[in-house]
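Exercise: predict the structure of this protein bound to 3-iodo-tyrosine.
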Amino acid sequence: MPHPPPELEPLGSYRRFHDSEMIARARRFYEQIRGRRTVRDFSPEPFPEEILEQAILAAGSAPSGANLQPWHFAIVRDPEIKHQIRVAAEHEEREFYAHRAPPEWLAALAPLGTDERKPFLEIAPALVVIFARAYEVNAEGKPVKNYYVAESVGIATGFLIASLHAAGLATLTHTPSPMAFLNDILGRPKHERPYLILVVGYPASEARVPKITKKNFTEIASLH
Ligand code: IYR
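Solution:
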């Protein structure tokens, strides 16, 4: 049976600007986003809940494969659950730093100064555990495939990070490996794969960050 034609509606939200205004806006955005730094020293100070809600709505507005929106955002504020996540993550990270990571990987990480201690998982007021839904489960319990899941969740995570930065909060993308313990602690189903933990809060007043640089335009782009 042929599919019915899609329902269309006018592109109501688009605003066209003059060239000069577009350039100014692009510069402003770059200025704002380049100021974002991954922070590992967080303040325990809580922040208004609505910021995270708005940021997750922003993430949920991201494009995704067939618009299937294959993501779930678990917001963790409960100190006991944060503690469990820290204990489980540090267990994996001890293995990673002592045994699992090959020397080249440890060498690549050296400029960041990371190690197996993850106090930020408890100190920061909120964690967002992002799950990628490899497939959905229909009413009959049968799996229904999602498409371009990693790409979709990556884009949504970028929106989330950008939104929180624009609001004035610091974030840290943290990926303990393996991360299956997050399904157990948070009671999430098997068809959701932990994608990353986003640590969210204010930076500690004494926060310091690694002195690193970003590649310039010609290093990351080519003109054809
Ligand atoms: N998951 C470890 C190691 C780690 C790996 C990468 I790639 C980083 O950019 C940072 C850390 C950890 O969180 O320490």
